[in-house]
Amino acid sequence: MKRWWNHFFVTTLAAGLTWASIAWGQQQMPKPPMPQIPTTPAAPTTPAPAATPAAATSAVGAKVNINSADEAELISVKGIGKAKAKAIIEYRQKNGPFKAIDDLTKVKGIKEKTLKKFRDQLTV
Prior knowledge:
About 45% of the residues lie in helices and about 5% in strands. It is built from 5 helices and 2 strands. By secondary structure, the chain is mainly alpha-helical.
């Protein structure tokens, strides 16, 4: 009989501890207080500075003209860095304006695979 009592006691204790751990884990944590929003009006802000010509021409969806773009405009094209922008400008100054976007492959450092990355962002 003593063995049966020990088994019953251990089983009951284990079940009670399991139930207690489940009940304890389901308790709600108190929510943090909401931050207070100031009711006084904010001080007026200064207007943003006017956009630069480079920023105006490199707007979302606008294409960059490779014959008239300066270095900053060329750098704004994803895939053209400072070195490639300088190389494009130097080539344009030596050889005249580009007739087609494919002519960029004549510039040192720009291959057909590289041109594919930013072709849709350019115009002649």
